[in-house]
Amino acid sequence: MTKIRKVPMRKCLGCNESKPKKELIRVVKDKEGKIFLDKTGKQNGRGAYICFNEECLKKAIKSKAFNRAFEMEINDETYEKLKESIKQE
User: Fold this and answer.
1) Which uninterrupted H or E stretch holds 5?
2) What secondary structure letter does DSSP report for 87?
3) Which helix (H) or strand (E) holds 60?
4) Which end of the chain is more exposed for a tag (fewer CB within 10 A), N or C?
5) What separation in angstroms does the CA of 11 have from each of 31, 61, 71?
6) What confidence score (pLDDT) does residue 1 get?
7) How far is CA 23 from CA 31, 66, 75, 77, in A?
8) Of 58, 63, 72, which is closest to residue 28 (Cα–Cα)?
9) Which regions of the chain does DSSP assign to beta strands (E)?
10) 26 phi, psi to nearest 5 deg
């Protein structure tokens, strides 16, 4: 009997859809409160996920989803860096 592996699912902060973890970008807040993209998915810190989609990022910013996920106010500069990173992907 073959064992079926469970695919880890995560919810996008923008569209609120559950998708396989590999299809989403992980955004991390580390102990110092720095927020950055985690391309490996293994960085230490609190993680939140977003689709590879600028629309989802805009929705998440508008609804302040990142502020709630990381329990802190996030500045525009950080959002600009996230936008740039998503454009490059």
Assistant:
1) none
2) H
3) helix 54-62
4) N
5) 23, 15, 17
6) 66
7) 26, 19, 26, 25
8) 72
9) 9-11, 18-20, 24-29, 35-38, 46-51
10) -95, 130
